[in-house]
Amino acid sequence: MNLNNKIAVVTGVSKGIGLELVRQLIEKGVIVAGWGRTQPEFAHENFHFFTCDVSVEDQVEKAYMATVSKLGFDIRILVNNAGFGVAGTFETMSSEVWKSMFDTNVHGIFYVSKRLIPGMKAADEGHIINVASIAGLNGVANFAGYAGTKHAVRGISHSMYMELRDFGIKVSTIYPGSIQTNFFDKIEGMQAHEHMMRPIDVAQTIVQTLETHPNYFVADVECRPLRPKGKK
User: Fold this and answer.
1) What backbone torsions phi and psi does residue 95 show, to the nearest 5 degrees?
2) Do the strands 47-51 and 77-80 form a parallel or antiparallel pair, or are they unpaired?
3) Is the C-alpha dihedral spanning 173, 159, 12, 192 positive or negative?
């Protein structure tokens, strides 16, 4: 897809991968509607921020209506990036935290995507990228809830692309390993460090996936730090 002048919705733009992706898409000439709970410290004439917690469908509806009111219905790109993880043993994890991870990481993808798919079908072109995690490919001790949400993202994404490919819509899933982001801020005993991947590189992979030939479809991208513990 030629990205110049395309309209994109990116969720979870407050920081990390989402904010870095916004910057890179703007450089490519994309008009970006950024949805997030907190407005990032970033300003550009082609960046439009809309307050939205994707776990709340009413907020998604309001953000969607505000976006199409300002930018129109012809949105060709959606990156479902909003998500978070909380560590804890299975039996000590609070039910509220467990549910909140599913509300954001899983249900949010449903609430957002279902509103943008009709416009992509009308255009006979679209690309949805769902940000999962390597925790969506295997289990992780003390992250059962988070891994469960990301396994769900994988199944949802694969089902979506089977439904939508004949309408000219690509659905890709990216599975990053550990990244230097705020993800680890609230996880005891784990800190982001220089041997993790950089958000700039993960965002660049998303952009490259979006730029593929119209008939070339990347279903899954798994990316990891080469030396997660540094040189031996």
Assistant:
1) -60, -35
2) unpaired
3) negative
Tokens describing residue 32: 């970006």
175 is catalytic: no
In the set 146, 161, 175, 216, the catalytic residue is 146
* Rounded-to-integer distance, Cα 220 and Cα 70, Å: 32
The CA distance from 42 to 34, in Å, is 11
pTM value is 0.93
CATH assignment at residue 22: 3.40.50.720
Torsion angle (degrees, nearest 10) of CA 67, 175, 152, 137: 180
Amino acid letter, residue 206 = I
pLDDT by residue (tens digit) across 40-76? 999 999 999 999 999 999 999 999 999 999 999 999 9
Total domain count, the chain? 1
Domain hosting 76: range is 7-223
